[in-house]
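Sample A.
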Amino acid sequence: MIRFCLLLCLLCPPVLAAALHPGAAGAAQATARPSARDGPSARIPLKGDEPSSAPAARLSTGGKTRDDTRGGFAALREAVRLVGDKALAPPSPEEAESLAAKGYMSAVDAYSTYISPRESKLLKERSDPAFTGVGMDLVQDDAGVLYCIPYAGSPAEKAGIAHGDVLRFVDGEAAEPLPLPVLQGRIRGREGEPVRLGVLGGQGPREVSVVRAPIHVPSAELLRGEAFFRIRLVRFDAHTRGQLEECLAAVPPGADIVLDLRGNVGGDLNVALACAERFLPENALMVSVAYRDGEPGERRAAAGEKAGVGRLALWQDRFTASAAEVFCAALSRNGRGKTVGQRSFGKGVMQQALPAESGGIFILTVAELLPPDGKAYHARGLEPDLLVARRSASIQEDFIRRTYEAFGKRP
């Protein structure tokens, strides 16, 4: 499983921001540079960012080279000719070009796609602060199934969207064929305006009307009054590192803590790594980035002040995905903490947004993300150190019980 995660309450994900505004610095990068607040860590390197002599990667290409497509596409050329000559209702050249580009990109994997100029314009319009969201993340698996992860107390949750509901329609239009960034734009709208979401879940198929509203959900939050100090990491965005620091400042030195990443579908990979290195010794390997053409690059923990906490338990579930999986693997596979919960989602690849000459945007999978021990988890997920049954009737109590085991304590 795995997909391209989107935060529907944000203006636009970092992978798209530079492509939507190509005049900005770092235009074609898959992730944004960390802010000064995030510390001195380097960003994840991308092919094209680094000198040509820099190490690249290891994703399988099935023996194909860049030249294998020369002289090909005979069937596509014939289809264009036949549609132009004989089709009862031929598509416009713009529509045909967009569909062909989407189809070719989708042959790479489920996360590669093309956003047409018209769709790109919609994204730019909907990134305006005047537009608001519903407080919900989406995560898509390899089969194209879209799962809803509403934030606690959000308009989506209040309207009846449940954790793990499958999204099928947006205002009557099928959701699955749309590129996820475009789907994001369709769900966003002006404050107070409703959006109709067709979902499938435990209550069967249903249509839910959600009124759009400004979303103010912290990405890192300390939960008190529980068996342990628990910091819930909802997503990784520009605010996460600063909010995590505030949480850690409220925890007594040496205290054992839980980092709760259940339902965290990812976000900005560089922010996730900037948070992870607060718990890791200098130079600890956090992730390897394996491109197509050579050896993997690396990202290691930088020097700097480290969190003065005790043992860590990392709570994960089947919707812990993407950058959140990188975070969990960086800590657990360096022996810094134990994972508790269910097998994670399994998104271990990275996309890059590339502006197209047409005015559209290509989103292309360019690298595989490997944990410190080098064991790939893409489409498999990360197995927890301590399993909690997903269908348990007392799941929260089971998480707490297994966390006591992780800390070597008795309840």
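Sample B.
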Amino acid sequence: MPLDSDSRQNVGGSVHTGATLDAMSAALGFNLHGFLEFRARTRGGAAWLDLCCGSGWGLIDAAERLGSIDGISIQGVDPMASFAPWVAGTHGLTFTAGAIASWKPARDFDLITCARGLDAVGDRLGLIARAAGWLVADGVLLANLDLSHLKMVGRPASLWVPRLLERAGLEYDRRQVRCRGRKQPQLPLTYLGASGEAAVGGRAVTARYRLEAGGRPE
């Protein structure tokens, strides 16, 4: 059932910054509604996975707006499980509580996004690499990634990480990782842990990596 803005404010005490589909599209620089509608109408269906979805208001807005189109499936995943009230499966939307670092979906997706929340994940580069393998053959992955919360032993992450992502077949531009088409990217990095990783509430943590032997990008 659609919820008004007052209801959205009353859950969790505040409106999530991605409380609408349009806000999520703006944060990602991508027309989510147009992409999903076109895929569903031309292919008989479209599946969208949003990682670190928070309360999921943006996904609820999407489900309500796209609900009349057959074949659209939306899944939101978040470790905090503080989802807004929603009847699972309505308009194709489900929420899943799970440890992002080890979670794995049971299907592939046309679209995978992470507009906010990635900076609270420990091994976020490992998550991006795994998520690229969850796409359909011509799917799209978009993940906003702030390099200021990444550290590499003996090397500036802001220079090295984009080069390593590019060598692995991914793109990094304007604080966003993009992948077009299913890939199995191999990043020559060893995850060393993250400061504040046990914190809750979505606070950004600084992830640390070490370049593996022979992993220097050309």
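B remarks: The beta strands are 46-51, 72-78, 93-97, 109-114, 135-144, 150-152, 171-173, 176-180, 189-195, 206-211. The helical segments are 5-10, 21-28, 32-43, 57-66, 124-132, 157-167.
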